[in-house]
């Protein structure tokens, strides 16, 4: 059997939106924060407070050093993640991660800079400023909200034509033309969840002891991260494959009319994907890798390959192949494929 190679149209259509949302917007946010801070130069102490401990401010620097060290450093990080998304972000989930992170980090840095400097206006000594718990809380949740919002509005992948043919040796479950079937599994990493939740408890205890209540946003974020990255529901039905976190986002849906075939693989997370969670590998695969072992791998149109580590992957693959075969048999020639749904 010969397999045609996809020309992957639509591979670079995302670069305009990726640049606008992943580079221009974060740099504008950083520039706005730096501009506001610089406009207060004559109202601020010669050495402003930049770090707070349990007894108040314990770190100081000049305004220039603060802006160069934080804003300029963040701008370099933004440029690096934008370059990754620009050149390697053919799959929307990768672009969402890079663009959402850029906007979130830029918002956090700008908001913290402005929020911690505002109460120092009119002071002659930065050590006289009080706590900045409220400013930290607003900055953290504002950064999370804006980063998530931009990731969600990022344009979806362009539809890709089906040029690859399904392999003959993949598993299949015999289905009649109108037979219904659904396969659902929960997959999670107890190790990842325990480590993240333990970190949240330790941070919460430290924040409570220090009385810096604004930093309670950090353990809350860690709990949400645990639910979003280490616990997933995998569903195979007549519409295709759906993988969503227990939190509800991230979520990925591969429509049945874009599925070429599905197989079972065995992965080693660190070797194959460089870590755990929503990952991408050097060979172009993306997916949810939360433990080693049995993995469902789905080839879809445009040369895309998605994986998810889940038990009973063989049944999921066989059912997906049956649905994909049945859809191809019933689809009129020339019918365009739908677009991958992600959030």
Automatic annotation (TrEMBL):
Keywords: Membrane, Transmembrane, Transmembrane helix
Transmembrane spans: 20-40, 60-85, 97-118, 130-154, 194-216, 222-243
Coiled coil regions in record: none
Protein name, UniProt field: DUF1648 domain-containing protein
Organism field: Sanguibacter biliveldensis
